[in-house]
Amino acid sequence: MMPIGPLMIEHRLIERMIDVMQGQLSVIEKEKKLDFEFLEMAVDFIRTYADRCHHGKEEDILFRELGIKQLKDEHRHTMEELVEEHRWARKMTARLVEANRKYIQGDGDAMSTVTECIRSLIQFYPKHIEKEDKHFFIPCMNYFTESEQQVILREEWEFDKNLIHEKYRSIIIMAEKELTSRTL
Ligand SMILES: [Fe+2]
Ligand SMILES: [Fe+2]
Questions:
Q1: From ligand 2's centre to the CA of 91, what distance in Å?
Q2: 3-state class of 138 per DSSP?
Q3: For the chain, which residues score pLDDT lower than 70?
Q4: How far is the CA of 132 from the centre of ligand 2 (A)?
Q5: CA–CA separation, 120 vs 51, rounded Å?
Q6: Measured between alpha carbons, how far apart are the two ends of the chain, in Å?
Q7: pTM of the prediction?
Q8: Residues 6 or more apart in contact with residue 54 via CB below 8 angstroms
Q9: Which of 31, 129, 149, 173 is 20 to 30 A off residue 81, Cα-Cα?
Q10: Which ranges of the chain would DSSP assign to H, the alpha helix?
């Protein structure tokens, strides 16, 4: 398998999440109230899977290795755009979390910000994925030899293996901090 294989498989799951978000957005707009369980799940998916696991492998492994190569201007430019788009998605997700927090605290106006953020993310991901799948990943594989590709692929598997431990370690660190602040 090429190192873009796992990334393209992950794209398919992100697309399924975007379809769910589209459906949930229609429900939110019809019922005029937010579904907190869904929002919590969606934010966790975007932050842990789409950003840490998926964008993490793109930026910290594939793009890092491409950065060492003499890329054509076109590919270097696209890679910079993709990193910038990842930053944008992180900011939009933080905005969604903040608006949801305000809504829970009773700020009714925050609901329109929540739906606007969901809509922005729904519009963003398919375009971003298409840029990678159709215009970047395949040509970029030509910069690597077969054995370089296998090294990258192995590092991707290793990255995934560590992820669940990293996630739950950070959950415990946060829980410990929360407990300390309550018992001081
Ligand atoms: Fe990406
Ligand atoms: Fe991607």
A1: 17
A2: helix
A3: none
A4: 6
A5: 16
A6: 53
A7: 0.94
A8: 7, 10, 11, 14
A9: 149
A10: 4-31, 36-44, 56-57, 64-68, 73-104, 110-135, 137-141, 146-183
